[in-house]
Specification:
Structural class: mainly beta
Largest sheet: 6 strands, antiparallel
Strand content: 35-45%
Radius of gyration: 29 Å
Shape: globular
Oligomer: single chain
Helix content: under 10%
Mean pLDDT: 92
Low-confidence stretches: none
Length: 476
């Protein structure tokens, strides 16, 4: 018999070796003494294991070692559209209309369009820190731009044309914010201490709009007024000191939250909170003995998206505007014998009359002022003047080179300031009984989407684009 070759022996040995190794690899347990990892076995603090929707409003705070240099400032711009909610400022400080406004400071923000407010030398602005996934309230020194403190909380969001869009409300002892996901927070304006909070989504089932919350809180006396527009509550009022709910309006019309803000008006001799929601327009009693009662509502005007707030035209009429082709409408309200009625007198598309997409129009000297939206026909993006009696034929418009996109505007004494969305500031003289005349313009900065409303106090004008806030010295 022929002996096996060396090659055959090596091959057989190799097969046996690898077969044995494979069997050993399957059978051997290298760490048989290990135990399964169970929840809590790593002794991790319980508050670090949090669900994505576990929002703890105002949980974090940071105070900065920055001197407060604005102790001599007493001016206020306390809320959305100012103290009168009309974007008209009456100031004893002369406005510089001759030369360019110097830039005093600039601060960087997260992406958004939220505008600041000013109260006695302090600036308050809502911001969103994307890396920290946090909604935050920042307090900034008006004169220096130094940050004094910030309070924030984690709330997961994805960028959708920015994050923060709302304007705080501030006064003695409080600053109130409504965050992009519907969290209401009240802090001490000096110390930043958290006073109270409410979560509209968790409490009322509020459905936050597609581009996040755009509604600005309303302070009326000792109450905070918002429109949760949730499953149960349409509007609600809270105690400014404690956050306790004082009243709520049943959402019988089934409106949902829009980007528009609640506006106080006197209609038919009755103080009323007027709100334009998704689904229609409503009026809620703002006075005792029936405060919080739904007085009237109509579904005859219901744009799918609405950002501007309603404007009172007279004791019985309200002007409504919205973008995306919706145009404008005039709503008439009457309350004879306690029986309230609301009906649309006229409604028209954006290219058929005065309308606005982003900013709320100004009623000044008996005339309407605003910027025609991009789908508004030949006058698109221009500043216009209309008589309330005829919303289809403009009395005046800015020149073809004076276009502003979705930029903001306000009136200080007899001068209108208009910021084009790309960063150029225009000044117009408001001539009594006539049309505005251009005084001058200034290229303030190379802006990206400068849509946030303007803010003014103590000779300081605050402007912003999607990533920064600038302070301009506008006094003479």
């Amino acid at each position: 018999m022929k002996a096996p070759s060396t090659t055959a022996i090596v091959t057989l040995a190799t097969v046996l070796l690898y077969t044995g190794a494979l069997v050993w690899w399957h059978l051997y347990t290298p760490h048989s003494d290990l135990e399964a990892s169970l929840p809590g076995a790593d002794n991790r603090p319980a508050d670090l294991a949090r669900a994505a929707d576990d929002v703890r409003i105002g949980e974090f705070f940071m105070k900065y070692d920055v001197p407060f240099t604005s102790g001599d400032k007493s001016g206020v711009f306390p809320s959305f559209r100012g103290a009168g909610r009309d974007n008209i400022i009456h100031s004893d400080i002369p406005l510089n209309t001759q030369g360019d406004f110097p830039i005093l400071w600039e601060v960087t923000t997260g992406e958004g369009h939220a505008a600041p407010v000013i109260y006695k030398g302090r600036v308050y602005i809502l911001d969103y820190d994307e890396p920290l996934l946090s909604d935050m309230l920042r307090c900034i020194d008006l004169e220096s731009g130094g940050e004094l403190w910030r309070r924030w909380y984690r709330v997961r969001m994805k960028r959708n044309h920015g994050f923060s869009r709302t304007v705080p409300a501030v006064g003695d002892g409080f600053v109130v914010t409504l965050g992009p996901s519907g969290q209401l927070m009240c802090c001490d304006p000096l110390t930043g201490d958290l006073l109270w909070s409410r979560d509209l989504g968790k409490e009322y089932g509020t459905e936050v709009p597609f581009w996040y919350t755009g509604q600005c809180p309303l302070i009326d006396g000792n109450e905070v007024i918002v429109a949760p527009a949730g499953k149960e509550a349409l509007l609600a009022g809270y105690d400014l000191r404690t956050g306790e709910e004082l009243w709520s309006t049943p959402n019988s019309p089934s409106f949902t939250m829009s980007h528009s803000s609640v506006m106080p008006m006197v209609l038919g001799g009755k103080k009323t909170y007027v709100y334009v929601g998704i689904g229609g327009v409503c009026g809620v009693s703002a006075a005792l003995p029936d405060k919080g009662k739904l007085l009237w509502s109509t579904e005859r005007w219901q744009p799918s998206v609405v950002a501007p707030s309603p404007v009172r035209m007279s004791s019985g009429r309200i002007f409504l505007v919205a973008g995306y082709g919706n145009g404008g409408a005039v709503l008439q309200v009457s309350g004879e014998g306690g029986q309230w009625n609301a009906r649309i007198l006229e409604a028209y598309k954006a290219d058929k009359g005065f309308s606005s997409e982003q900013q709320t129009p100004i009623l000044y000297g008996g005339k309407f002022y605003g910027i025609i939206p991009k789908d508004g026909g030949p006058l698109r993006e221009r500043l216009v003047q209309y008589d309330p009696s005829d919303l289809h034929h403009p009395l005046w418009s800015s020149g073809p080179e004076e276009r502003f996109g979705l930029g903001p505007y306000m009136i200080i004494n007899d001068v209108m300031l208009v910021l084009a969305e790309e960063g150029t500031l225009f000044l117009y003289k408001m001539n009594e009984g006539g049309v505005p005349t251009l005084i001058r313009k200034q290229e303030v900065f190379e802006a990206i989407d400068a849509w946030g409303p303007l803010c003014y106090a103590d000779g300081r004008l605050l402007v912003r684009d999607s990533h920064r806030v600038l302070c301009l010295k506008v006094d003479s």
